[in-house]
Amino acid sequence: MAESNEQDAAQHRAEAPVEIRVEDLRRSFDKHRVLQGVDLTIRRGEIVAIVGPSGCGKTVFVDHIIGLLTPDSGRILVANHDAPGAPLVDLTTLDEDGLDAVRKHWAVVFQRNALFSGTVYDNVALWLREIAGLSEQAIEPIVRESVGSVGLDYDEVARKDRDDLSGGMAKRVAIARAVAMNPNVIFYDEPTTGLDPQSSVTIHDLIGATHHRPLRNGSARTSIVITHDKDLLARIEPRIVMLNEGRVYFDGPYREFQRSDSELIKPYLALMPVLHQRRVLED
Ligand SMILES: Nc1ncnc2c1ncn2[C@@H]1O[C@H](COP(=O)(O)OP(=O)(O)OP(=O)(O)O)[C@@H](O)[C@H]1O
Ligand SMILES: [Mg+2]
Q1: What average pLDDT is seen over the chain?
Q2: What is the model's pTM?
Q3: Which atom of ligand 1 is nearest to the CA of 57?
Q4: Residues with Cβ–ion distance below 5 A, ligand 2
Q5: Is any atom of ligand 1 closer than 6 Å to the C-beta of 53?
Q6: Would you give the end-to-end CA distance of the chain in angstroms?
Q7: pLDDT digits (tens, 9 = 90+) for 163-207
Q8: How far apart are the C-alpha atoms of 270 and 18, rounded to whole Å?
Q9: What distance in Å separates the CA atoms of residue 140 and residue 185, rounded to the nearest whole number?
Q10: 2-282 CATH, one of 3.40.50.300, 3.50.50.60, 3.40.50.10540, 1.20.1250.20
Q11: Is the minimum distance from the CB of 274 to ligand 1 under 6 angstroms?
């Protein structure tokens, strides 16, 4: 079964349309060369984990994909779901309006959740109000459904204030807010950092379930997760992309990664729990 899952995934990779293609991405900060030629193609429907030692450039890499940073050189092509047929566009050539059109179809679940002060309802409704411009009548059922999809009782939590949520609940609300946007692509930045083990398990399941939940138009979702959480990898069995020294060092299925004999991967795997834990202490 596992083997056939891997074969299915490989088949899928070969055939699905390209969602994101990064070509020879380079970026330095002063003399520090962080990205030194990253090449990566992510296809629609894939679930991809970006891993690698602390400081290897995972966050810098993803910040380029979501348009928060601009490269020194290289190209970042992304599917523009705002146009028929979702053609690839070069992010670096888009103006603010063009970027907004692309980003409208993406959601980012930030490490610190980025919930603003207010109720759960307001947090999940914000984007639908401000960006999608929906009426309150149209928004309510979407909020209800999204909150339900992360395993929370709408009637119990909708009017709760952000400040009254536990870490695990806040993370679920952040995911509900992402789900409400019906995004083609979801990015998660260290989604289980700082959570207790029980909440982490819930979030592992939720990331898997959200990935497999089709969009409202039936299209497949693409999920990209930055993490040091080994248990999360074991749960979602993603395609693993490991960065090292500014390049893609490993790119393949989770099972292959996990049983690798590489002199870089083995110690990294052993260190993952420490890295994951350390992030909790830093917070
Ligand atoms: N704005 C910036 N200015 C200068 N250096 C930066 C900037 N952002 C990142 N860096 C440097 O780039 C390198 C990669 O940082 P990045 O945050 O991408 O690492 P990471 O792989 O996400 O690590 P971690 O697992 O600890 O989150 C680090 O050495 C960092 O100090
Ligand atoms: Mg990081």
Answers
A1: 91
A2: 0.92
A3: 18
A4: 58-59
A5: no
A6: 39
A7: 999 888 999 999 999 999 999 999 999 989 888 888 889 999 999
A8: 33
A9: 23
A10: 3.40.50.300
A11: no
